[in-house]
Amino acid sequence: MSNAAPRTTGQDHLWSVDEHLEDILATVRPLEPIELQLLDAQGCVLVEDVTVPVSLPPFDNSSMDGYAVRVADVAGASEEFPAVLDVVGDVAAGQADLLHVGPGQAARIMTGAPLPPGAETVVPVEWTDGGLGEGPVTGMRARALAPEGAEGHVHVYRPAEARAHVRAKGSDVKAGDRALEAGTVLGPPQIALLAAIGRGTVRVRPRPRVVVMSTGSELVQPDEGLGSGQIYDSNSFALTAAARDAGAIAYRVGAVADDAETLRDTIEDQLVRADLMVTTGGVSVGAYDVVKEALSHVGDEDEAGSGIDFRKLAMQPGKPQGFGSIGPDHTPLLALPGNPVSSYVSFELFVRPAIRTLMGLDDVHRPRTRAKLTAGKALTSPKGRRQFLRGTYADGAVTPVGGAGSHLVAALAHADALIVVPEDVESVEPGTEVEVVLLG
User: Fold this and answer.
1) What is the pLDDT of residues 333-352, one digit of tens each?
2) Which of 227, 233, 169, 173 is nearest to 197 (CA)?
3) Separation CA 405–CA 420 (nearest Å)
4) Core vs surface per residue 82-120: b (16+ CB within 10 A) or e
5) Residue 243: what are its φ and ψ, rounded to 5°?
6) What is the distance between the alpha carbons of residues 275 and 333, in angstroms, rounded to a whole number?
7) Which of 184, 180, 212 has the alpha carbon at shortest distance from 193?
8) 393 and 436 Cβ atoms separated by less than 8 Å
9) Partners of 209 in beta bridges
10) What residues pair up with 385 in beta bridges, in sequence order?
């Protein structure tokens, strides 16, 4: 949640990229922890260490299908002189009442079954005749097909050392060990561990709910026919997918027409399911920039502390931006420009870190590296603007993709990195080392 109003500055103030990001991250706070069922906690961040209540595995068990025996009874066994043991029965996984293995005896044991009392090691079934008396076998016959396999005699053709093919109690984790640290993001392996140690619920910060909406009367949904002057709405799809990729539960709202009242009504309707709202379009200086019109004075009617500040940033693409909070819970809202590349670059720089902050993560930014610029000619950049160009990164080199235009969706689709050109640099020659934001 947001707990402070954004800074207010003069309309002519030109914000740096770092100032705008700092303002966002100083305002957005991690969501309050909740207790969730394991599968509902996937993708969430732990808020407390998890201690192992019971050792894993909780008992000595077999890692093979075979025979549980005493070491002395199979010492020196070979195919020429096999050890012949009495089979006293089966030990299956989950079995509570265990057989006792005495001298000269063997118990047929299944993978995962407890090592029975008296047994010291496990001989794989492939080292035996499986009780059939016809030489080495490749596996056991199903008990349902051959119940007599659990009785009679078994020939063992190889010796086994003590505790061979035995998983020791606590060999994975021991009772009292720390299974997972606070701050861990719960993926499938972590959820498997929690289930294995008996945890059905866990305390986490929930995945933030992000509502994404685009604005513009010219926008048409995919699969619908285009009229004169219309284009398909791609921004809301791109940003919703990006929010999910960042770890959020994202909801896409269909494009809202260029009407301030309709937009405000739509935002108010969506607040109930939003921890963060993202709009795209309508934040520049045109006569139909509806987001700016609708939200510039929203703080006049909402509770104290709310309000959206529209500002100009020293960056390209993405100069016009809006940020603040809205509604009774002061829900953070980021208003992004409408050009496809501008909105996506803005998301990566500002919205993704906000989402990751809501999740309670320590590292909220995309990884960055240095790379050699591979290009056919020098890159140009406007003075006083930090430029972000699309590129492809491989083996320490980055190559620009497409031009600088903020409408080039096709070029964006082939990029996996952003090339950063600082504010004080107007030209970058091929071979120059540049900063690169890796998009994954």
Assistant:
1) 999 998 999 999 999 999 99
2) 173
3) 15
4) bbebebbbbbeeeeeebbebeeebbbbbbeebbbbebbb
5) -65, -40
6) 9
7) 180
8) yes
9) 249
10) none
The two structure tokens encoding residue 180: 């997972």
Whole-number Å distance between alpha carbons of 136 and 139: 9
Q: Compute, in degrees rounded to 10, the torsion defined by CA atoms 193, 197, 198, 203.
A: -60
Residues 229-259: tens digit of each pLDDT = 888 888 999 999 999 999 999 999 988 888 8
- Kindly state the tokens that stand for 115: 């090592």
Within 10 angstroms of residue 5's Cβ, the number of other Cβ atoms is 16
**Cβ neighbours of residue 203 under 8 Å, at least 6 residues apart?**
33, 34, 35, 36, 46, 47, 48
| pTM beyond cutoff 0.90 | no
Q: What is the DSSP letter of 64?
A: S
C-beta separation of 299 from 307 below 8 A: yes
What's the CA gap between 203 and 16, in Å, rounded? 38
Among 439, 438, 428, 328, which residue's Cα sits nearest to residue 376? 428
Token digits of residue 39: 């599968």
Burial class, 258, CB count within 10 angstroms (exposed 0-12 / middle 13-18 / buried 19+): buried
Cβ–Cβ under 8 Å, residues 291 and 282 = yes
State the sign of the Cα–Cα–Cα–Cα dihedral 33, 34, 39, 40: negative
